[in-house]
Amino acid sequence: MIPAPFEYYKANSTDEALKLIRDFGEEAKFLAGGQSLIPMMKVRFARPTKLIDISKVQELRYISLDGDYIKIGGLTTHRELEKSSIIIEKIPVLAHCAHEIADIQIRNVGTIGGSLAHADPSADYPPVVLALNAVIVAKSIAQEREIPINDFFLEAFTAELRPDELLVEIKIPVMKPNEKAAYIKIGHPATGFSVVNCAVKITLDKEKIEKARVAFGGFVTVPYLDEKVGEFLIGKPANIDTITQASELVAEGREVIGDYYADADYRRHLAKSVFVRVMKKALEI
Amino acid sequence: MTAVIGKPIKRFEDDKLIRGLGQYVEDLKLPKMVYAVFVRSQVAHAEIKVNADQARAEEGVVAVITGEDIEGKVGKNFTAWIVPNSNQVGAEISSRPLLACRKVKYVGEPIAMVIAESKERAFDVAELVEVEYKELPAVASIENAIREDAPLVHEQMQSNIALKWQIKNGDVDRIFSESDRVIRQKIYINRAAPVPIEPRACIADYNFSNGKLTLWVTSQNPHIHRFYIANVLGIPEQKVRVIAPDVGGGFGAKIDIYNEELLACYASMILKRPVKWVETRSEHFVASLHGRDFLVDVEFAVMSDGKVRAIRGNSYANMGAYLGTVSPGVASVLHGLILPGPYAIEAFDYTTHAVFTNTMILDADRGAGRPEAIFVLERMMDLIADELGIDPLELRKRNYLPSGENIQTVTGLSYDSLDFSKVLSKFGEVSDYEILREKQKKARQEGRFLGIGVVSSIDICGFAPSPVVGAVGLQAGQWESAAVRFHPTGKITVLTGTHSHGQGGDTTYAQIVSEILGVPLDSIEVLHGDTDMIPMGWGTYGSRGTSTGGSAVYRAAEKVREKGRIIAAHVLNSKPEEIEFENGEYFLKSDPQKKITIQEVALHANVGWNLPEGVEPGLEAQSFFDPPNFTYPFGIHLCVVEVKPDTGEVEIQKYVAVDDAGKIINPMLAEAQIHGGVVHGIGHAMFENIAYTDDGQILTGSFNEYALPKAHFIPRIESYFTETPSPANPIGAKGIGEEGAIAAQIAVANAIIDALKPFGVKHLDGPYTPARIWKAIRGNLAKV
Fold first, then answer.
1. B16, B360, B430, B442 - which has most CB atoms within 10 Å?
2. Domain end: A131, A146, A173, which one?
């Protein structure tokens, strides 16, 4: 199909992109990998009148180790994350998550910054960055600010980004030896997008769980950190009984979305099952 | 030369397609071409008012055509199948208006055609056509449509029943009263879409200097398109040329003649410019035909030993709002006649119904009526096996018809050459069936739920002889044409009335010609898909390509060989009866050293300097082959699944197909057809589903919701063949395009339901999605 008419601008640097968005305001959209935006424009669900193409802004494409953090440039592609030796070594769950996204063609073009800013509740990254306690760096021509991931996902397809801001960096704490993480999704057979997905990061103190971050997506309008489940796990032995008991709390009190393929009842149940699988995978039990 | 038939030769067609050098309709551009986009109905049933004034005033707009603009000026799009003794509704009601006029009857129905100088403009302007809807009660499902108080799709009718056709043979009631058990089940086979990789497209180009209309179109049967254009638009048939260039898959979707294609022709005639239309993928889900969507209620009369004696019941096929090109036959003849399958049944009483609803038109989707029949039959066989405690494979063995040629069925068919003993024997060698049953038992003890589906299937292919086809109401012939033409240089052009759109017909036909004429494969070119170039023919569908079209090629090549023999005898100073032909050479029986190649004979024939008296120049022959019977490929398929009861997820662990399609020309292509068909069947069972709300809104109208099977969902498919040649054609071939899809959908379904047996699940309608399986298990949790 053919998108509604729009003007196209190409930015060669972050500054140039930020100046353009300042001037254009809400009628403009950044075009990074275009793997979500372009299909939506083609069916005319999205109708931005101006596109600012940032896909060639090389300064936003990097993966680097900086102290206790890995810093990832917003234009880093899924494929680069999947294949990055630093990511595979320091945050393997993120490499796995990137690998789970769509197919190689899409991973070669789609970017982590674009995906997070798009805030699709069924996308792969949200529960993983929530579990990993990432920090989002957003920049406008006026300022740069850090957004804790807990505050980032606001509504379906809406993230905590102002109209003049660009997501420039994701900071993720490096995994420590006593930290275990895993991610599993159950994809819709049509799109591969999650019907339910779940990521966990567990900090172990010998046999016991010292800290737990458990995050979900797919079956809710906003990906979220399940604090009830996380709190329940603290201080408990890292075993099947604990996991089973914790699974009963999954999505408690949450409104669950459903559709023709998988209704809310099923998704709520599936979330519990997926949680059990993720925990077993993380704890290797 | 060794035999070419039976060799796994790589397809000639693939090289250019893999390199992206195919020439599809979308690739073609003509000078002064304009682009069409359709405004479609957003609601299922409504009175409409269309206002196109603003759109027409826009820059770059060439025309906006509405239903009122063409009313009375063009004909309607009619069905080509009138089922006898069925009270089929008349064409005045069942035919589609090319554009909706005053009323819309399904979501996606074309309302206005916007034509602009560019594709982009056409899309923009289409948004400016205003449609005012006054909604009327709609009906989408069969169950709602057959209710007494159902809203009527066509107000002129008394009910939504478009036709009712009964097949009855034997004393059904007596046998039912004598039987030990009666097993009854209501079975629904959900709607699907054929979804070829290439959506539909066309370019119509009317040349007003000579009154000739050329249509490039994604067609499986260009001559049928020509016939329709001539009829609907009132153009003499010789003034219509239809070209189907490279076509990216059909699966039935490109059999039908569609409104958009007829409208492109009409628009080109009034605008005197070429008009192009390319379907978008979202459009495809509401504008190209759907398949399946059958509701069947049957009962089987069985004896305690598992012998099935009689079947009776009713089927209802959801036709959508109008009748498709062949959909009345899909709902009745193609479905009911094969329902008893390969089994010896004494009596049969089955009434098929076609039902109108406010949905997209249903028609032939890979198998067309037969997959639904075999689904019902084989689902019932599993229910019977379960009820009687007989192994499902054993139950089938107890019911097979005898092996042999021209085996009569209870519905009056005559199976050309049936031999289940051969298929069973091969199946026994390759399937590990008994071991799998043991494995299943063990797994259940471990709390793992394996399911095994083992099904027999049979297809009706090569849908001819033409007099029989005519007698069951198809307003067409089903013979096939071919021409084999030697050029002066000894190279060959083959023309076929079938159309290859992925099957590999160019390669298999070349193999047939190479076998008969002893010429190298690379000296043969097969042409199809241009009505000005090809003799009248009926296209490709219903697994008729090789058995019917290939046989015409075979016969034409034989005629060429025999004419060549006469010329060779003359050149060698001998008599035709003294001439042998082998490996492309004619030689004297008495003196094999005296010989001449067929290419040399072709040169003689083409220059005409030295021909026997009374023999015309040229070396070319045509054949119009009408087989004496249908062909009936058959087989046994096995599917093993594991179901995770906690989430309803299904993993297919094993798939074995043993098929008998008669003589196989190219085993690699035959296997490919089975692979494709099985994937199609797995898709229909587990993923593919066209769903409507009760008021006719489509829920799965894009690839966001409609799932095709991906490579990683598919197990390794083990495909084997037995060869029982068909007596119905000179090759002995039966057809292989649909068999995989027919068998796989029910093999997967039966495997999944078998896995659910410990949960008390006896029957479940598809699609077999995790959520539905989980619910089925949960609904019966008390019984675990």
1. B360
2. A173
